[in-house]
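Section 5: illustrative case.
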């Protein structure tokens, strides 16, 4: 019984996904590992452009159920806010994250072609050895998501803070 209560602390009751607090905790761990073990890390936020916020939330929750089946065990899918999902992708570089974003668009289109066109995806990634912090990564991906939503459902990639796309720290 006590173990169930501890588990519930980390889970969003409505979706069964991890909650925002858990995402922040895992992000801190993964940023540390990225620096120490020199593997890349990507972070993605997904949201919808819709005048009907209730329909957008329902569609996002349906997409979340599909994404649970199409992500790796090492990935973390979390409810970031009422209408936004977060996907933390350890050992994933820019190219892998953008490929996954395209795959997510295909899955969303299978769910509803009209809604898939309104899916905004913000993506950022950090190279192996990244020595920045988790807050900077989240600020980058939030900015990318805002840009994606302003462009009415696009995928926008922004490299880790202080890096130009494709540039590695120290170059």
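Designed sequence:
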């Amino acid at each position: 019984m006590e173990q169930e209560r501890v588990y519930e602390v980390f889970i969003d009751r409505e979706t069964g996904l991890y909650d925002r607090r858990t995402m922040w905790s895992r992000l801190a761990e993964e940023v540390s590992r990225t620096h120490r073990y020199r593997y890349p890390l990507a972070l993605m936020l997904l949201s919808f452009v819709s005048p009907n916020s209730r329909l957008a939330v329902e569609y996002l929750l349906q997409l979340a159920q599909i994404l649970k089946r199409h992500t790796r065990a090492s990935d973390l899918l979390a409810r970031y806010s009422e209408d936004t999902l977060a996907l933390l992708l350890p050992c994933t570089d820019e190219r892998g994250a953008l490929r996954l974003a395209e795959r997510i668009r295909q899955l969303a289109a299978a769910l509803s072609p009209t809604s898939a066109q309104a899916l905004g995806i913000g993506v950022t990634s950090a190279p192996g050895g990244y020595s920045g912090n988790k807050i900077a990564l989240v600020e980058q991906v939030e900015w990318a998501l805002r840009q994606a939503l302003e462009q009415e459902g696009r995928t926008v990639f922004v490299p880790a803070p202080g890096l130009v796309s494709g540039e590695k720290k120290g170059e």
